[in-house]
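Sorry to interrupt, but I need a hand with the structure work. Go ahead and set the record down below:
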Amino acid sequence: MTTLPRQRGLTEQAADAAIDTACRLLRLPSIRNEFNDIADRAVKDQMTYRGFLAELLMTECDDRARRRSERRIKAAGFPREKSLRAFDFDANPNIDAATVHTLASCEWIKKSQPLCLIGDSGTGKSHMLIALGTEAAMKGYRVRYTLATKLVNELVEAADEKQLNKTIARYGRVDLLCIDELGYMELDRRGAELLFQVLTEREEKNSVAIASNESFGGWTKTFTDPRLCAAIVDRLTFNGTIIETGTDSYRLASTRARAEEPA
């Protein structure tokens, strides 16, 4: 067992070495890295011993919370970084900023409710999906992002390898499942049924957020069985929020505007 020498009247150098060793043993990297700066600030600001200790501990807690958020965001598998702060609400008036910022509180995830983002390409669906998923991860929720076709292919492979229950359970455990590009490709009956199993596993237990370029009336192109299509729409809309992002691509509009700018 490793013990640290305890004696009164340590020199500054010896005290620094003891603090460094203790932080390593106790796995307190943030205190170890920030101690000198916080100690100097404590002297300057004439902090009490309690205030100094609180500052040290809060530094460690804040840094651990930041690292946990980073791990959850990485585990979600987002293809790129997107934030609500970077979204131009003025460019797409179809998207109500107040509604989106209410969603960012994640109450809907706490209540296991679904979210549907419906609109044409370039209207901000994927940006919203990733940004809201990121907000959820930062608030402590387990999030997973996937493309609809990728998810279905994974489920088909799992079924072929007798691992379907395990795979569905894995997707069932996350607090928020983000499915992007739903409706871009037609799914055969088997793929549609497997996706339905995932949605059923999560129904009223964990949230699903989807982005689709098709209105619900056009989903029969993706899910060719009308009854199965209706059941999937029901799973994804019951007690949920639907945001229609419109048909005008603001990405295309901004590209054109840049192209028309004088050289």
In short: DSSP finds eleven helices and five strands in the chain. The chain has a mean pLDDT of 88.
